[in-house]
Amino acid sequence: xxxxxxxGVLFILAMSLLSISSPAAAxxxxxxxxxxxxxxxxxxxxxxxxxxSAATGIEVRVVAVxxxxxxxxxxxxxxxxxxxxxxxxxxxxxxxxxxxxxFDVMYNDFVIIGPQIDPAKISGMKDVAEALNKIAAxxxxxxxxxxxxxxxxxxxxxxxxxxxNPAKHSGTWYRETGSGMGxxxxxxxxxxxxxxxxxxxxxxxxxxxxxxxxxxxxxxLFNQYGVILVSDKxxxxxxxxxxxxxxxxxxxxxxxAAIAAYQVGGKQLFTPNAPCQ
Amino acid sequence: MQDFSSSFxxxxxxxxxxxxxxLEIITLSLxxxxxxxxxxxxxxxxxxxxxxxxxxxxxxxxxxxxxxxxGLPPVVVGLLVYMMLSNAGPLGFLQLLYxxxxxxxxxxxxxxxxxxxLTRQVIxxxxxxxxxxxxxxxxxxxxxxxxxxxxxxxxxITTALAGFGRAIAEVGAVIVVGGNIAHVTRVMTTAIALETxxxxxxxxxxxxxxxxxxxxxxxxxxxxxxASAARMSYV
Lengths: 277, 235
Hints:
Chain A contains twelve helices and twelve strands. By secondary structure, chain A is of the alpha/beta class. In chain A, strands 1, 2, 3, 4, 5, 6, 7, 8, 9 and 12 form a ten-stranded mixed beta sheet that branches.
């Protein structure tokens, strides 16, 4: 092998590889949606987004992270639409001028999951605050997201409703994973811990082991999702027109029907409740 | 654990059935990582060789720096590249965030220090053998560096493979700058992370085996190429 053969091989390799990585970026008909892991892990997006693309020709690229990070990314202008579940944080996002307007899209609920043996004896309880107090009183292991996500924010509200501050016990029975919902569920199952999850992620979750839903149905476990168009006043590159089309669709009849039609194991995971319905 | 044994069969089935979705993810993984490694080698080989041969102030400090940067946490590289490429960052106008190009940049940043540090060592060892001859023949430095790089090529292939191994296996950088977007920036490692977070542990592990299989194929082909090249040179 002569020296020029090696450099030739390297050159051809580099050119061929670089050329293939560009076509995805060359398309202009796409929007970026900053969203939460629950909407992706539940399979909802895989079900409804092809319908939107078929109807409008717009490709949707979903970045699924925790609500806290999704909002930060959107503030940086790295998304055209925000679809998350932390109403007060969403309203602040709009009030601060980062978003145009917030619309309700759909809801489901949170549930408290725990091991079959249920050391804190909370199975079947209807008052979630009381259930949390029993977990705390028995010092049973509780896995918290600890990542400022929508689910984590809700969990902190519920502890506040229970008049209990679990942060003081962090590292003992109260364990903050600092991870996404799926990773936290895996951890909780590994530690035989209690954990709070949105119902959609749990229903679709593949590693349930002997864990099951123990507490559900309290009105405070309500989980509302909202959608916001990122404002082009702060970031001129936001695709306002395409983003608005997505919002019109998902809050319109077609999108709302698609959300209602998504089922796992015969169960509907999200209930549409956009205002125009 | 039943997940273990089912992962093996699942991995075999995945490779055997060669679903278009999986092929797409594998292809993108290879495109991103090979591009990053080629770029890192083009930058790293000459710099590493110069560090080994040239005498200048701060050489030891630079060597130490590159050796340290071999331990760069991928997630930190991802964060730095994200902050540069974000629309709120200085290079936002390039519109590269959440594209494969962003992932190539991140992995190239991650791998370049490894290539530099290992190249420096390989070339320095060889230079100790050659130094006297170079001096007596008054070989210009440029020629000397080229000759050293060429004669050390087999060592440098291993260096490139070390970089490849680091890049193909990392998830922290590509998930931040790529966003793990289906059909756009989803690669093997981010797919494994996603399946783990869905609780599909057997599938996640199976994808891990597929990734190892691909890495083995790459290593084996380099090994064969090298063996046949060595044989040819004796003919």
